[in-house]
Amino acid sequence: MSKKAKIISVYLAIGVLFALYGWLFGDNSYKSFAYNLGTGIFWPLVMFPGLGKLIGAGILVLFVALVTMS
Asked: Which of 33, 37, 49, 54 has the most neighbouring CB atoms within 10 Å?
């Protein structure tokens, strides 16, 4: 198993555990497991809201740059 595969496996395992916790005990426990799995996939953005804002700002800057260059 390569190092890349191990990192992806650990990331996905944390995401599934995050989803299970959210589904059973979290603020969104009334929502379906699929919803919580969706948030579990992006667990760093949920755990660290500032990171989500930073990524969103980067995407916005990229979009504006692509629009103005064409």
From this structure: 37
